Amino acid sequence: MERKDVTPKMKKNNGIWRKLGLGLVGGIIGGLVTAGIFYAVMGSGNAASNSGGHQNSAGETVVENVKVNVDSDITNAVDKVQDAVVSVINLQSQNQGTNGFGQLFGQQQQESSDDSNLEASSEGSGVIYKKSGNSAYIVTNNHVVEGQQGLEVLLKDGTKVKAELVGTDAYSDLAVLKISADKVNKVASFGDSNSLKVGEPAIAIGSPLGSEYANSVTSGIISSLNRQVTSTNESNQTVNINAIQTDAAINPGNSGGPLVNIEGQVIGINSSKIASTSASSSGVSVEGMGFAIPSNDVVNIINQLEKDGKVTRPALGITMVDLSAVSTQQQEQILKIPESVTNGVIVTSVQPTTPAEKAGLKQYDVITKIDDTDVSSGVELQSVLYQKKVGDSVKVTYYRGKEKKTTTIQLTIDQSALKQSQSENSGN
Question: Are residues 427 and 420 in contact, defined by beta-carbon separation less than 8 angstroms?
Fold first, then answer.
């Protein structure tokens, strides 16, 4: 299944074709709206017999002064948060020999020590959630700022300001930026994502295709909750998101923008979409499957990023593989687990002096539960484990052959302190 981050690279101008396409759509929509107004005003009677109201005394067609109340829960929600939504521009050094700017400004081919040779590499979205003193803080996606050598933020009023990277977290795909608060008049508030219901309205705000279409609004519903979405970022790190699924249109450039409830509260940060069922040309095209990081997770992460610039997560000290990825023959002959055990995570190695080793876990143990939560994959194990803190203890249920065992593991080590395995198996 192809999962796409929704951060476009530097946009190309499609010229007259894009303008023509937009014009055609606008013409069609305009015609339909006009027809609708005409019908509403004239009623269902014979239009030809009712000539009043649409021509002046000279017989010329005129526009009807029809006033429609367009205020709604959605427009009110957008009004509350829209001014806090920004475009985030990722600046990176470009090959000056290909763009002509280096020659124009007399720059040399070697790298400059300043930002004069940085250009927009990609664009995404973000939302201002806090003002403190002279600074304002923005949350966006990690993949929006990945590889940056400089950052700029485009505010709602068109002002472009320099941004500072406060911290990033690849695992949750979140990042925090800081800008001057001089031009910031509104900040967004977070709602409780744990209280969301499937079917309730959801509104996405961001910059699809980049800042040219900044502050675009789309609406839909919450399609599902607690979706496990896994991908690999540009640094080949596994990104796991316990996500909100929505059918509100999320397009390239919406990454990092807010998903908003009907009260105008941020309930998620838009991160990705599924575009097709496979990367091949024969894959089935998919629409209406976008994903956002729940606000409760976002708040936990950004508080840590503001404080430390990183997120500290506990680790067991194992490498692992999903039981479902192993053949039935291997389960019988190597693992020797009961036939009734069909889901779990196989310990492929235990790193020395780690909590797992101290608790007695060994190679080929099959973990089936963390505390009272069933785990059928490495993603689920990480999701449960990363809700804990270094110093917490967890109960691990596992099988060693046909024997079911439990052990209590104290999470005394930070994942970042572990040496990362170079194998294809993910470490934890």
Answer: yes
- Annotated catalytic residue 54: no
Quote the domain boundaries for residue 422.
Answer: 318-427
Residue 117's SS3 state is: coil
Helices (H) and strands (E) in the chain, counts: 9, 20
Identity of residue 253 = G
Query: Hey, which residues does 140 pair with through a beta bridge?
Result: 175
Annotated catalytic residue: which of 122, 255, 272, 383? 255
Q: Which two tokens stand for residue 54?
A: 């649409």
Last residue of a domain, one of 59, 77, 95: 77
Please state, as a whole number, how many other Cβ atoms lie within 10 Å of the Cβ of residue 132: 10
Q: Which residue, of 38, 59, 77, is where some domain finishes? A: 77
Q: What's the rounded mean pLDDT across residues 59-65? A: 81
255 is catalytic: yes
Catalytic residue selected from 143, 219, 231, 377: 143
Q: What is the pLDDT of residues 309-342, one digit of tens each?
A: 988 888 898 989 999 989 988 998 999 999 999 9
Query: Tens of pLDDT along 66-118?
Result: 777 767 889 999 999 999 999 999 898 876 444 444 444 344 444 444 566 88
Q: Could you tell me what percentage of the chain is helix, strand and coil, using 3-state DSSP and rounding each to the nearest 5?
A: 25, 35, 40
Rounded Cα distance between 162 and 154, Å, is 9
Asked about 297 being catalytic, the answer comes back as: no
Number of domains making up the chain: 3
Alpha helices by DSSP H, 43-87: 73-81
Residues 6+ apart with CB under 8 A from 338: 399, 402
| Token pair listed for 148 | 């940056």
Contact 337, 399 (CB under 8 A): yes
Of 83, 173, 247, 297, the active-site residue reads 173
**Torsion over CA: 293, 296, 297, 303 (sign):** positive
Averaged confidence pLDDT in the chain: 80
